[in-house]
Structure formats: structure tokens, C-alpha cells
Write a structure and sequence with these properties.
The protein is of the alpha+beta class and 577 residues long. Helix content is 50%, strand content 18%. Strand 7 and strand 8 form a beta hairpin.
């Protein structure tokens, strides 16, 4: 039995067009899309996690850089303070010179020049009118002008405390310099101030020793905001620092981000308590955050590349999976149409399993259809046989019946007996019918209520369908005669049915015991004809009828080959045909 597929107006089989329409329904996605979503579900969280880790790492690095920059600013300030303190100590030592106290400036000049040799510092002696009395930067006796930084000198004289000037352009040096001033007591000495002056660019060594990296720069500015030293450009010395106005002075090193001329700068500023100068460590924010930006850019590009590669792989794998699935869909349609489906070894184990399952289902369906066709032929064959038997029963019953009522009663009982045998045949199938069950079914309608009056004994033996039908009719006739005239006709009669297998034959004995049996004339009726013609002719049975004083005994010797059902294996070629 094969399933048929209708055709649409365009001639396409509807069974083949259904999957195409189903795939266009809303809510359905392809395998490639599902694999792409799976790749995205795996990659995107990993990228987000990587970004979070990168940000955390950048924050830790920024904190470390801030700490180092703050330490650098503080270190530069301390280094400059130590240098200024050392210069002031030098002044105090020189102020105790004997030649200075005696007013011998030439000797004082010689001693001071020798003491300051190699320090890049120069000593200036100044009187109360701010005139230079001597300057170790030039030979002794060279005509000198008044000092350039009069304001700081007057403050030192007024307070009587040492002072440190801002940067200024020295007239003698013609360079950007700074001074450390020590006022002397007013003891009618010509020298009122000792000044230790030094070129501002010499302070750059304090900045260079810090070994700044990562785009960071350091600058030392005076109280007026002029650059005294810079690690960025030495030409900036003496010029105003471009971030001075944007960066607010602080007592402690603090990191701030300021904006100047459209750009952001990270700054750390520390003030010197000795000089009032400030150390500013600064760097463009873009440079500081450059590694983070580059890392994010690389991560983004790498993530996009991975997603693109994952999408491509998902598309390729989706096609590799979708092609076998479409083949499985076609095989399923062929299975529905009753066509044979062969198993295909696919690379994917699960798809190969489905293919084998479809092939097995196809094989099972074809076997079932062959079985159905065989059973239909068998039903047709048996129906014809049944009709032939019923026709024969009707003819024989009519021949021996004297009235229509007698015919109707006898015919109905024999048909019922045939029906009971048929029920057993259907239940047994090709395996046949058990002889004990056949005896119980045929004798059952006539058996007395006293179970001791019926005895059935014999070893298990299965009959073929044809043999069961023939023997069933004979047993029905024997049971009918027993109910009318024999063992079941009286209240004391007994019936014993036994069978044994002797070599290639089966011996069946029907023995009735009827006390006070009334002898009747022996006649040949329908039952006798059934027994002799069907058992003898169909099953090659040897029939022996013995009339004892107490009842009838029938012995049937039948070849086993005529009785046993055919093996199932022998029926398979017929099924396949």
C-alpha cells in the first residue's frame, strides 16, 4: 500500500512543496543563522569580558602611573630644594671668610673662585646700593653694573633672612639665571649681600635624572610662572609655562586633567616650601591613554575579525549540515510516498543515525506492505475456501434434511462450528492452531456441565490452517453425533479424546462410553461424508470406526507432514514475491 501525493495546478507534487512553504513561515530560522547566533553568543560575552578586564588593567596602570608621577614630582622638588639648601650653606661658609671680614675682596675673590670651581655657581658681592663689588663669573677688577634682581635683594636686606629669587636674565651672564641671597650684618662693611648665582639650565639635570617615560614631561617654574627647567624643550627656559594658568597651585601633588587650546592634559603639580617654585609633571591625555585606546582598537578589530571568521565558518558548516537535512527531507517524502529509501553515511553522526532510521523505516514499511499484500491474498484464498466449504455444507445438509427447519438448524450449527475454527485460524496466524484448543472449541458447545465426563489428553501439537479447518469440521460432526446419540445424549455418558505421535503419523482416538447404549442401525450421513471425504481425501487419513457395546470409537491415523504448519522461513519468499 503506497501513499499517493496530489499535484498542484502547476504540476508540482504537493508533498514536495510543503517543506518549502513551511520554511517561509514566521519564526523559522536556518541552521546557518542558528550557528551564527551560537558563535555570537560565545564570542560577544568573551569580548565584553576582555574589554572589562582591559579597562580594569588600564585603571590599575593609570593608578600606578599616577603614583609614580606624583613620586616623580615630589622627588624633583626635593632635589631642587636640596640644591638650593646646599647653595645657601655654601654662602654661609663663605660669609665666615677672614678676607671678607678684613675687606680684602681680591683675596676673597680668589678663595671663593677656587671653592666654587666645578660647581657651575658664581659668587657676587653686593654693597648697600645694589652695586656689584665682585663677580666670580668675570675676572676681578672688571667694571660691573648694579645687580639685575634688585627687588629680591631689597627684600633680603629688609627681612635679614636668606632669599631665593625667581628666574631672570642676568646682565653679566646674558643668560637666564636665579640667585640665592644671604644678607650680612650691617657692621660698616662694604659688602651687604652675598649672592650665589647659577644658570637656570643647570636645574635640568634634576629633571633628567628622573628618567620620565610614557609621554610624561616635567617642568620647573618659578613664582611668576616662568620656566626654569624643562625635560621637554630647553628653549622654553625663561618663557611662561603654557599650562600655568590652567593648573591651580596645590600644597600636595595632585593629578588633574586640564584643557588647553582644545586638548586635554594630565598634570601633577608639587610646590617647594623652600623656594616657592613649582614642579609640574604633565602629559597629553591622548598620549597617556594611547596604550588603552590602541588595545581597545586592536581588540575591536580582532573581535570583528573573529566574528567575521565565525560567521563564515557558521555559514560553511550550516551549508554542510543543511544539505544532508534537505536530503533527509526528500527521503522522508519518498518514505511517505512508499518508495525505497537507502541509508547514507553522512559525516555528522546524528544525521547518519536519522538516515539509517529512515532506511529502516522504509524497509519495515515495504515488509509490512508485502505482508499486507500476502495477507490480502491469503484472505482472498481462505474466503474462497470458506465459500466452497459453506457451499458443500449447504448442499450436503440439504441432501439429508427432510424439512426446511431441520436444514436451517443443522446448517446454522455447522456454519458456527466452521466459524469457531476460523477464529482459531485468525488468532494463530501462520503459526497454526493447537490441537487441544481446536478440540475444546469444537466440543465446548456440546460438553456437559460435569467436567469429569470429558477427558482430553495428548502432547502439544500444532496444526496448519488447512488441517485445522478440516479436522474442525470432522470434530464438529463427531460432537454433534455425541450430543444426539452418544456420550452427551445421556446423563451418564463419557467422552475421551487422546492423541499420540507415532513416527511420521499422528493417531487421534475418539472414544465414547455410554452405559445402556441403545443400538441403532448404521447409516451414512453428512458427518460420515465429511469425515471420510475431507479427512481421508484432504489429509490422507486412515479412518477406523469401531462400534463397541458401550459406545463408538473412531481412530484416525494421519501423516504429520499433512498436519504441521509450514515454517515461517518458507513463507518469506512468497511474501517477497
Amino acid at each position: 500500500m503506497s501513499a499517493t501525493t496530489g499535484q498542484s495546478p502547476d504540476g508540482q507534487p504537493t508533498a514536495q512543496r510543503a517543506p518549502a512553504s513551511a520554511s517561509r513561515r514566521y519564526g523559522h530560522v536556518s541552521i546557518s543563522a542558528m550557528l551564527s547566533l551560537l558563535m555570537a553568543a560565545i564570542i560577544i560575552p568573551a569580548l565584553v569580558f576582555a574589554v572589562v578586564l582591559l579597562q580594569r588593567n588600564n585603571q590599575a596602570q593609570q593608578a600606578m602611573v599616577t603614583t609614580l608621577a606624583e613620586a616623580t614630582a615630589g622627588s624633583i622638588t626635593e632635589t631642587v630644594d636640596r640644591q638650593l639648601t646646599g647653595m645657601l650653606t655654601t654662602l654661609r661658609v663663605l660669609a665666615t671668610s677672614r678676607s671678607l671680614g678684613q675687606g680684602d675682596l681680591r683675596d676673597f675673590y680668589m678663595r671663593a673662585n677656587k671653592a666654587l670651581e666645578g660647581t657651575d655657581a658664581y659668587l657676587i658681592a653686593v654693597d648697600g646700593d645694589m652695586n656689584q663689588l665682585m663677580n666670580t663669573r668675570v675676572p676681578f677688577g672688571t667694571p660691573l653694573q648694579p645687580i639685575s634682581d634688585i627687588e629680591t635683594a631689597e627684600r633680603a636686606l629688609a627681612t635679614g633672612e636668606p632669599a631665593i629669587s625667581d628666574g631672570f636674565l642676568g646682565q653679566t651672564a646674558q643668560r637666564w639665571v636665579f640667585n640665592v641671597l644671604l644678607p650680612l650684618p650691617d657692621d660698616e662693611s662694604r659688602v651687604r649681600l652675598l649672592i650665589l648665582t647659577q644658570d637656570a639650565e643647570r636645574l635640568s639635570g634634576s629633571l633628567a635624572s628622573q628618567n620620565l617615560r610614557g609621554g610624561w614631561n616635567a617642568v620647573l617654574v618659578d613664582r611668576a610662572g616662568a620656566v626654569l627647567a624643562s625635560s621637554y624643550m630647553s628653549s622654553d627656559i625663561g618663557k611662561p609655562f603654557f599650562l600655568s594658568e590652567a593648573v591651580q597651585p596645590t600644597e600636595t601633588a595632585v593629578r588633574r586633567t586640564v584643557r588647553f587650546d582644545g586638548r586635554d592634559y594630565d598634570t601633577i603639580r608639587a610646590s617647594s616650601p623652600t623656594s616657592g617654585w613649582e614642579t609640574i609633571v604633565w602629559a597629553p591625555t591622548a598620549v597617556v591613554q594611547g596604550p588603552m585606546v590602541r588595545s581597545l582598537r586592536v581588540l575591536a578589530l580582532g573581535g570583528l575579525a573573529i566574528i567575521a571568521l565565525g560567521g563564515l565558518l557558521a555559514w560553511v558548516l550550516g551549508r554542510q549540515i543543511a544539505r544532508p537535512i534537505r536530503r533527509l527531507a526528500r527521503d522522508a517524502q519518498r518514505l511517505g510516498a512508499g518508495e525505497k529509501v537507502d541509508a547514507i553515511e553522512y559525516p555528522v553522526v546524528e544525521i547518519a543515525t536519522v538516515s539509517h532510521a529512515l532506511a529502516q523505516a522504509s524497509s519495515d514499511r515495504q515488509a509490512a506492505e508485502n505482508e499486507i499484500r500476502f495477507l490480502m491474498r491469503e484472505v482472498a484464498h481462505r474466503s474462497k475456501n470458506q465459500l466452497t466449504v459453506v457451499s458443500s455444507i449447504a448442499k450436503q445438509t440439504a441432501r439429508h434434511a427432510r424439512t426446511f427447519a431441520a436444514f436451517q438448524d443443522a446448517f446454522q450449527k455447522r456454519v458456527h462450528g466452521l466459524a469457531r475454527s476460523t477464529d482459531l485460524l485468525i488468532a494463530g496466524g501462520v503459526a497454526g492452531v493447537e490441537l487441544r484448543e481446536l478440540l475444546s472449541v469444537q466440543i465446548g458447545p456440546f460438553r456437559p456441565s460435569d467436567a469429569s465426563r470429558l477427558e482430553i489428553d495428548g502432547e502439544p501439537f500444532r496444526l496448519s490452517n488447512q488441517a485445522a479447518q478440516t479436522i474442525g469440521l470432522a470434530l464438529h460432526e463427531l460432537a454433534t453425533n455425541a450430543a444426539k446419540y452418544g456420550a452427551f445424549a445421556s446423563t451418564s455418558g463419557r467422552l475421551k479424546v487422546t492423541w499420540t505421535r507415532a513416527g511420521d503419523n499422528l493417531e487421534l482416538v475418539w472414544r465414547e462410553v455410554v452405559p445402556r447404549l441403545r443400538r441403532r442401525a448404521v447409516t451414512t450421513g453428512f458427518g460420515t461424508e465429511v469425515i471420510e471425504r475431507m479427512l481421508g481425501g484432504t489429509l490422507d487419513a486412515e479412518i477406523e470406526r469401531i462400534f463397541h457395546r458401550d459406545g463408538l470409537e473412531c481412530r484416525f491415523t494421519m501423516p504429520v507432514a499433512k498436519l504441521e504448519p509450514e515454517m515461517v522461513e518458507s513463507a518469506e519468499p512468497e511474501h517477497a514475491s
